[in-house]
Write a structure and sequence with these properties.
- By secondary structure, the protein is α+β, with helices and mostly antiparallel strands.
- It is 54% helix and 8% strand.
- It has a four-stranded antiparallel beta sheet. The protein has a two-stranded parallel sheet with strand order 1-2.
- The radius of gyration is 21 Å and the shape is globular.
Length: 287
């Protein structure tokens, strides 16, 4: 039995569909349970490898990372619905803002399409639910937590050439629009863009997708930090890396599974946390 399992593990996830067929036909509960365990282990091993490759290759593609996080809970999910949604919003926004130059006007157009036309909204009623950490659930339900909404917003914005990046604010997550060296006359559309923060200047303003794309300034962050009694630090005002974004997502997910007492999933999340250099870390949900 162990020899057969080892052979299956050596084949990787390519044998999952075969095992799922075996599981459907199996009548012995003990064997069915063992098949389920092998499928789960195969999928988890593959996902850990994909996380490692994403990190080691620079973590440029935030959408890829969001899909990997979704597969912690939904290992068989297809990315098609998410990529179709991103492409749909990007095309709608591109057509609406083609000749628009002003950054605030671009933000207002994207806000209208996301929050008015497509009905995205912050999930205040079930704020800490694990599903809020999964981007494809946001596409399906049109509601989520701040960091997942910010991720979707910035993914689409960057594909439109908008210099919008995530900001790791305590107890919340927001976006920053950074100054452009040269503003292009037309918004790019045909290529997937992963913008580099280093190619842009100072932060001009901030965006809160959880509040329907509300625009605000640095002084508002100062007021927020004062209200929650947190001493200001430079990192609270500047964009963070994609790796830091995913680390925060994993902290939130770890906390969410704890809230529903899902110990197995908490342990699985810790495996991904270690891959991203978070050994032994158990943070509190900051969303």
């Amino acid at each position: 039995m162990r020899t057969a399992e080892n052979r299956l593990y050596s084949e990787g996830t390519e044998v999952v569909s075969y095992l799922e067929d075996c599981w459907s036909a199996e009548t012995d509960p003990a064997i069915s349970s063992r098949i389920e365990e092998v499928i789960h282990n195969l999928q988890q091993n593959e996902l850990q490898h994909e996380f490692m490759v994403w990190k080691d290759t620079g973590g440029a593609d935030l959408l890829e990372a969001c899909i990997l996080v979704s597969r912690i809970q939904y290992p068989g999910m297809s990315s098609d619905s998410v990529t179709r949604f991103v492409d749909k919003i990007r095309l709608d926004a591109w057509m609406a803002m083609y000749s628009t130059q002003n950054p605030l006007d671009k933000v207002h157009i994207l806000n209208h399409i996301l929050f008015e036309r497509h009905g995205l909204t912050g999930n205040s009623d079930n704020y800490h639910a694990p599903d809020n950490s999964f981007i494809f659930r946001l596409v399906e339900s049109k509601t989520s937590n701040p960091i997942t909404m910010c991720n979707l917003y910035s993914i689409i914005a960057q594909r439109l050439g908008m210099p919008v990046f995530g900001v790791n604010l305590p107890q919340h997550f927001v976006l920053a629009w950074c100054e452009e060296e040269v503003i292009s006359k037309a918004v790019p559309y045909n290529s997937d863009l992963f913008l580099d923060r280093k190619s842009f200047g100072k932060v001009l303003f901030y965006i809160n997708p959880f509040s329907k794309g509300q625009v605000f300034l640095k002084k508002n962050i100062d007021e927020f930090l004062e209200a929650i009694k947190v001493k200001p630090r430079q990192e609270f005002f500047e964009p963070c890396s994609n790796v830091e974004i995913v680390r925060r997502m994993l902290r939130n997910l770890h906390f969410s599974y704890g809230e529903i007492q899902n110990t197995q999933k908490r342990i699985e999340v810790e495996n991904y946390m270690r891959i991203l250099g978070m050994e032994g870390e158990v943070g509190e949900d900051e969303n």
